[in-house]
Amino acid sequence: MPRSGSPLTRGSCLRQNRRTDRKMKPTWLCLLIAASPGCRDASAPWDGSAPIQTDAAAYGLEAGSAGYAATIHFVFTNPRPTPVYVVNCSGNAPPALETFIDGTWRKAWSPIVPLCLSPPIVIAAGQAYQGTLQLFAGFPTNNVYPKFDTPQISGQYRLVWSGLLSSYDADAHPFGEPLPLAQRISNSFRLAAP
Hints:
The structure is a single chain. The protein has one domain (39-192). Helices cover 11% and strands 31% of the residues. The chain contains 2 helices and 12 strands. The chain has helices spanning 10-19, 24-35, and strands at residues 52-54, 58-60, 62-63, 67-77, 84-86, 96-101, 104-109, 121-123, 128-138, 155-160, 164-165, 189-192. The strands form 3 sheets. The chain has a 5-stranded mixed sheet with strand order 2-12-10-6-7, with no helix packed on it. Strands 1, 3, 4 and 9 form a 4-stranded antiparallel sheet that branches. The protein has a 3-stranded antiparallel sheet with strand order 8-5-11, with no helix packed on it. A hairpin with a 2-residue loop joins strand 6 (96-101) and strand 7. Helix 1 runs antiparallel to helix 2.
């Protein structure tokens, strides 16, 4: 199980391996984890070539006083031969989350963002854009938002970035043509609630 709030990485297992004093059990456990694809649900589709790649295969949610939190670093690589435009408010344009339930991807969490319009972030053809999702979700029993839209929080997820456009015109509505879903999703990863 990943440490709370941090990604499960092969490097962390190797560091753990060096710290053990030749105890076979931890060594074999770390080798097993390092060789595995992570805590991914075997039935969930996984695409290592998705245009958005997260920095880990699993994340542990930290329980705070009002909700759960995690930090997910990601890289979006523009798969198109033309620029991609990111609708944002002062640089704020976080992706949403979908969860894999009963063989389909379903909406699971949406960020709350300010309602302003800044010039688009332009990502040139083939260029990589690094982002960070500061995920926060209120506990199911309180009135703090946003919240997970699913009763079972632990599970398989992916990022979905809705504000990615293939063209941009600030005077038009909508501002441009959205990218197809396949060009604005991440690899799948596991979220574990405490």
